[in-house]
Write a structure and sequence with these properties.
The protein is of the alpha+beta class. It has helices at about 10-15, 130-135, 155-190, and strands at about 5, 30-40, 45-50, 55-65, 70-75, 85-90, 90-100, 100-110, 120-125. It is built from three helices and nine strands, in the order βαββββββββαα. Keywords: Endoplasmic reticulum, Membrane, Protein transport, Signal, Transmembrane, Transmembrane helix, Transport.
Length: about 190
């Protein structure tokens, strides 16, 4: 496991272009957002590294989608290795930091679990990235198919809750109708006697 996982942001192609060919690139500070879902086996830890410029904003939002307890340990460290955030057994979290130049490390740790793997969704929102933002956004045009599925737990739960509500309504309606039929049968039986 000790390998570093670098997030995919190819910048060589646009970095070679002169600024004249990128009108307006320095005129605003766009934000980048990327999201990922992965499975973390029991007893394992997975770390990701995000290079950041000076005075940008790094926001990390995570959520455990599946696995016993729906919990994970989370660790965010600065380029110098200083712990910025450390949470234990949380199901979700949102953290924002103003950055220094360097590689920020964030880890999801499931070493406390001996049986249950976890499915983890996380989203990175990078603000004030300057010219790097557009360069880093270009990698998305090369990804096709299921790689671009953006699905959160809320996206799955909304239709399920609607269906469950509909089923519950139909159940209550059925019970009410059954009660009415039984009442009519009682009245019909008592009136015929």
């Amino acid at each position: 496991m000790g390998d570093k996982t670098w997030l995919p942001f190819p910048v060589l192609l646009l970095a070679a272009l002169p600024p004249v060919l990128l009108p307006g690139a320095a005129g605003f500070t766009p934000s980048l957002d990327s999201d990922f879902t992965f499975t973390l086996p029991a007893g394992q830890k997975e770390c990701f590294y995000q290079p950041m410029p000076l005075k940008a904003s790094l926001e990390i939002e995570y959520q455990v989608l599946d696995g016993a307890g729906l919990d994970i340990d989370f660790h965010l460290a600065s380029p110098e290795g200083k712990t910025l955030v450390f949470e234990q057994r949380k199901s979700d979290g949102v953290h924002t930091v103003e950055t220094e130049v360097g590689d920020y490390m964030f880890c999801f740790d499931n070493t406390f679990s001996t049986i249950s793997e976890k499915v983890i969704f996380f989203e990175l929102i990078l603000d004030n990235m300057g010219e790097q933002a557009q360069e880093q956004e270009d990698w998305k045009k090369y990804i096709t198919g299921t790689d671009m599925l953006d699905m959160k737990l809320e996206d799955i739960l909304d239709p399920i809750i609607k269906i469950a509500s509909d089923v519950q309504l139909r159940l209550h309606l059925g019970i009410h109708q059954q009660h009415q039929v039984q009442t009519k049968q009682k009245w019909a039986h008592t009136n015929s006697a």
